[in-house]
Amino acid sequence: MSTPEPDTHLARAGGLDAAGNHGEAINELARGTRKGDARCTRALGLRLLMGDRAPFLPQDGLRFLDDACGRGLPEAAARAAGILALGVHVAPNWPFALEWLVRSASARWQPAQRQLLALCDDRELATHAARDSTNVDWRAVAAAVKLDDWRASPAPHFKSTDPRVVTIPGFIRAELCDVLIESARGSLERARVYDASSRRDLVEAHRSNSIANFNVDSVELVHSLLQARMSAACGVSERKMEAPTVLHYSQGEQFQNHYDFVDPGSTTDYAGEIARNGQRIITFLVYLNDDYDGGETAFPKLDIAHKGRRGEALFFTNALADLSPDLRMLHAGRPPIRGEKWIVSQFVRSRATR
After folding, report:
1. pLDDT tens-place string over residues 13-27
2. I need a surface site. Which of 1, 48, 103, 133 has the fewest CB within 10 A?
């Protein structure tokens, strides 16, 4: 009997999942894994590591992801790093996540290599390694990453104290900005606006930019570290943060005046939405480039228009202390009139999201 094509079992598993037969989907992935299908091995490992429509078996999940890495999919080890850093069903484990990022980099997965080089706090070592990535001791690079530094933030500058609009120059280094841009390039899609009544993201005419979402199946170690630094800056746990996103604005694209809070006026079950998911109390931005004209983050009711510098952060509150909307916080992402704009956008809720 001939061996199926490498993606046959993966395709069958997808069909079974679509039909709600998740147990048989896992069995199909296991069959592909036994036949040496690295993509099935990766998919099976991720599901067991996260307990995604499968038993939560993290040790087995990591073993399969390691196998997938050894079978020619070094990206699988980077996925393990992201999940371990985020903490799914368990506490985040940054040192262990860093070990898995080293596995991916050592197996020549270039996005993992770029991430390690950007995170490395020995800039001389990172610069030397970047010149010749074929003979790099990636464990030495990882050893120079000061993980604990991500639990602190540079000093804030207040553009407004009530309501809070805060900038933080030098929030991340330029090399990390480049990594975050590159991680988003291949995943951009038309940005949508969350509609709490339907609990769906909808395309709206007043928003024309694009977005890359980093959910649990695509999050990187650097995203979790960035969320921890955001937490230190705004004083709210990263466990209350939604999935991080990177926004892209081409010339002329914009997000017209809007609010980020969950609006009781347009949310059918407002009390239920707040009870389930919490209020969006803070929006946190990190500017990833500044080689464009226009593109300010504008607050018309506060007479503030800010064009961030590369690596700078800006965060602002969306709600009052009682979680009711703060109507002063109307804001817009103005269109670049030259060049393109890249930013990280992070919503922070009033209750845990994970």
Report:
1. 999 999 999 999 999
2. 1
Task: Measure the CA–CA gap between 18 and 279, rounded to whole angstroms.
Answer: 32
Where exactly are the structural domains of the chain? 1-73, 80-145, 151-349
Q: Where do we find the tokens 């330029």?
A: 174
- Pairing between β-strand 280-287 and β-strand 341-349 as defined by DSSP bridges: antiparallel
Contacts of 148 (CB under 8 A, 6+ apart): none
What is d(CA 149, CA 185) in angstroms, rounded to the nearest whole number? 28
Backbone angles phi, psi at 69, to 5 degrees: -60, -45
Residues whose CB falls within 8 Å of the CB of residue 68, separated by 6 or more in sequence, listed in order: 38, 39, 41, 42, 45, 76
Helix (H) or strand (E) holding 258: strand 255-258
- Could you report the per-residue pLDDT of 296-312, keeping only the tens digit for each? 999 999 999 999 999 99
Q: What is the pTM of this model?
A: 0.91
